[in-house]
Amino acid sequence: MKILLAEDDQRLGELTSHLLRKKAGYTVDWVTDGEEAYDYASVSSYDVLVLDWMMPGIDGRTVCHQLRLDGYTGAILMLTARDSVQDRIKGLDGGADDYLVKPFEIDELMARLRALGRRSFTPLLEDICRMGELELHRTSHLVVCGENQVQLSLKEFQLLDLLLKNRGRVLSRQLILDRIWGMDTEVTLKTIDATVKLLRKKLTQIDPRSNWIQNVWGVGYKIEA
């Protein structure tokens, strides 16, 4: 199961993410503010979002509400120290699917995550992602343009898939690094540039005029037809 944990308390966030990885074997991305949580949820697929209500900047309830307005259909669990009935109603009305009051036991959190995961909120991705004549085939890791095709490595495929799912949107190099190599990786930002270079080289094999992946100086990359 893939979890996004948004918790600004350093000790609680570190402990919770560690236990979810160690005890349950989950893949966990941990962020510490609402803006990061919104960005990560918008560009990647998670089985469950775990949002702390009280976070700096944008609070968890606002993140939840905005994601629902954007059409987000994934499962959302709200964490909060607010335990009144009215607070629970506000959280659920804001779009949360479940509600857990702090302090909580990690076993109860995992049980609630399993229950939400079984409900299969996240739709399956289509096998083929298209942008004009460009086609990315998820099952075979092939990229096709007209009658030409090329096979990508795992990281090249993940990078192109991430860019295509967010076409026209500039993705920072740090966000790309976190999404593809993981937040705990020792890989440097230079690896992203090297992977983009290799990906561009392969794309020219199927269309010599291709310049779909654009470098946004000082920020990151985007893809456009």
Automatic annotation (TrEMBL):
GO terms for biological process: regulation of DNA-templated transcription. One of its GO terms (cellular component) is cytosol. InterPro entries: CheY-like_superfamily, OmpR/PhoB-type_DNA-bd, Sig_transdc_resp-reg_C-effctor, Sig_transdc_resp-reg_receiver, WalR-like, WH-like_DNA-bd_sf. Gene3D superfamilies: 3.40.50.2300, 6.10.250.690, Winged helix-like DNA-binding domain superfamily/Winged helix DNA-binding domain. Residues 126-225 form the OmpR/PhoB-type domain. GO terms for molecular function: phosphorelay response regulator activity; transcription cis-regulatory region binding. Residues 126-225 bind DNA. Residues 2-117 form the Response regulatory domain. Keywords: DNA-binding, Phosphoprotein, Transcription, Transcription regulation, Two-component regulatory system. PANTHER family: REGULATOR OF RPOS, RESPONSE REGULATOR RPPA. This is Two-component system response regulator. The lineage of its organism: Bacteria, Bacillati, Bacillota, Bacilli, Bacillales.
